[in-house]
Design a protein that fits this description.
Blueprint (H helix, E strand, L loop, with lengths): L2 E3 L2 E3 L9 E7 L2 E8 L13 H8 L13 H10 L4 H21 L1 E4 L2 E4 L1 H12 L1
Antiparallel strand pairs: 1-2, 3-4, 5-6
Length: 130
C-alpha cells in the first residue's frame, strides 16, 4: 500500500530477488518502472575447481567428468548403471564353447557308436570332492 511522504508517495516492496524490469501499476495505468539487479558476486562465472565443487555439494553427490566425456552417455549411465548384457552374452558364449570342447573330448567309442561319458564326469567330481 503506498504511503504519502513529504516528497511523494512511497511503496515498500520488500526484498526483490528476481532480476528484471519491474513495473508499478495503479488502476490499469503504469506509474513507474525500475530495474532490479542482483549482487554481481552471485553471478560470478569463473570456473570452480573440482575439489571446491565436492566440498560445496558433497563428494557422494558429485561426479566430475573429463572434457572429452559425452554428457548424454554419462547421464544415462548414472541413471541406469552400466549395461551388462554384452558381458553376460560373451560369458555365455565362452561357456558354451567350453562345454562343446569338453563334450567332444569326453566321448567313448563303443559297439553302439559314440557315447558321452556323463557318468565319468560325475564319478570324477565325486572323487575330487571326497
Amino acid at each position: 500500500m503506498p504511503t504519502l511522504t513529504s516528497v511523494g508517495y512511497q511503496v515498500s516492496l520488500g526484498a526483490l530477488d528476481q532480476p528484471g524490469i519491474w513495473q508499478l501499476f495503479t488502476g490499469g495505468h503504469k506509474i513507474d518502472a525500475f530495474a532490479v539487479n542482483l549482487d554481481p558476486r552471485e553471478s560470478d562465472a569463473q570456473l570452480v575447481g573440482a575439489k571446491r565443487v565436492e566440498q560445496l555439494l558433497g563428494a557422494h553427490r558429485t561426479r566430475i567428468l573429463s572434457r572429452s566425456a559425452v554428457i548424454e552417455k554419462e547421464v544415462l549411465r548414472s541413471r541406469y548403471g552400466t549395461e551388462l548384457w554384452k558381458a553376460c552374452l560373451a560369458v555365455a558364449f565362452l561357456l558354451m564353447m567350453a562345454e562343446m570342447a569338453v563334450a567332444r573330448t569326453r566321448r567313448l567309442s563303443g559297439p553302439h557308436g559314440s557315447i558321452r561319458t556323463v557318468s565319468w564326469c560325475f564319478s570324477q567330481t565325486r572323487e575330487f570332492f571326497s
